[in-house]
Amino acid sequence: MTIKSMVLGPVQTNCYFLINDETKEVLIVDPADNAQGIAGWIRKEGLRPIAILLTHGHFDHIMGVEGLRKDFSIPVYAGKEEADVLKDPQKNVSPMLGTSVSIQADRLLLDNEEITLAGICMQVLFTPGHTKGSICFYLPDEKKLISGDTLFEASVGRTDFPTGSSRQLVESIKTRLFILEDDVMVYPGHGGCTSIGYEKTHNPFVY
């Protein structure tokens, strides 16, 4: 499996592509913006989209969803507790961009649920804090974690938007993410990649 990324949108969001190297199937994670550009790149690479995965519902992670869903006729997966954030522009703070975004996931995922898409096995980790329904996708066979805006390199996601909680965020990181092995690579929603081990010793926000 290969992970590739694009940095998209007004706040430089990481959109990830989880690629099955054998089948050329691809999962699109957090399509932040520019659905047309994403679709063009996918076609140029000869990839076959299977699904869209969302770590949470903020506008800067979902602006490209509807365009891609329509273009490729693929389902959208998100955490069960995030359904109303996806639907409610006030909660997904899309008015900050001068727009109104409302989407509905095709499949709502439960905590600890194991799913296999494009031949890639993932475990859903419920990590409330940045939003009430934030989730991370853990790929145990690959030792990789797609952390959304829960955990960044030496930082964490902001909690001052609707449904956010700094207490919950720190608790989620400590009890759901820091129990993973130190060599698990972390792919965050913004900024560069890191590892669980590095964050355990260098992240000043988790105490």
UniProtKB/TrEMBL annotation:
All residue ranges annotated as the Metallo-beta-lactamase domain in the record: 12-190
Signal peptide: none
Required co-factors: Zn(2+)
A Pfam family reported for this protein in Swiss-Prot or TrEMBL: Lactamase_B
Listed name of the protein: MBL fold metallo-hydrolase
CDD domains per UniProt: metallo-hydrolase-like_MBL-fold (cd06262)
Keywords, in A-Z order: Hydrolase, Metal-binding, Zinc
Molecular function terms from GO: hydrolase activity; metal ion binding
